[in-house]
Amino acid sequence: MNEKSLVAKCKKQKQSAQFEAYQKYAPLLRGVCCRYIINKDEAEDVLQEGFFRIFTQIEKFTYTGENSFFYWMKRVVINHALNYLKKQKKERFDESFKDEHLFIADENSDDIFNTDYSKYTKENIISAVEMLPLPFRMVLNMAVIDGLKHKEIAGALSIAEETSRSRLTRAKQMLRKNLIEVNSLVSVNA
């Protein structure tokens, strides 16, 4: 079934269409949840609750072309994951990190990300990202992986745009350091 007809049937609360949407998109959205919530069981709960929200709020969605449904669902799941983290208070989600880690990045700060990632395994990269403090990991995920603009990130996290920019720059620096650390641990244990 194509995406447009799938949306139309989901809007009519057809269980077969909802099941098809879940089967088709759950693996992708599970990955999104796991980027924000490290605990796999909690990420799975957020995914299930995200689908509940998707199906109860589907009337708000307007089909605008191929993949628009997926991107809308992705945004719903990301927002739900952010809200979950805020409620759980797993780590402070406030400006307390601003004073400790804020700095102004120079124009060449993106050189930090020009690292040869081919020497790292997928597992090394995931471990290095998971080592990032939550506020930095969130901004990195939202900017680099989900492609959100700093204005959108700032709105979603209730922070200033400049804080979003500085957290991204700092996250890139920490990620590079973490990759070196993870890689050296793997080399020692090998």
UniProtKB/TrEMBL annotation:
Answer whether the UniProt record assigns the keyword Oxidoreductase to this protein: no
Organism expressing this protein natively = Plebeiibacterium marinum
Biological-process GO terms, alphabetical: DNA-templated transcription initiation
Q: What domain of life is recorded for the organism? A: Bacteria
For the keyword Ligase, the answer is: no
Q: What is the lineage of its organism?
A: Bacteria, Pseudomonadati, Bacteroidota, Bacteroidia, Marinilabiliales
Q: Mind telling me which NCBIfam families this protein's record contains? A: sigma70-ECF (TIGR02937)
Q: What are the RNA polymerase sigma-70 region domain coordinates in residue numbering? A: 22-90
Regarding protein family, the annotation reads: Belongs to the sigma-70 factor family. ECF subfamily.
One Pfam annotation reads Sigma70_r2
Record's protein name: RNA polymerase sigma factor
Q: Kindly state which keywords UniProt assigns to this record, in alphabetical order.
A: Sigma factor, Transcription, Transcription regulation
Q: Which GO terms describe its molecular function?
A: DNA binding; sigma factor activity
RNA polymerase sigma factor 70 region 4 type domain location is 123-175
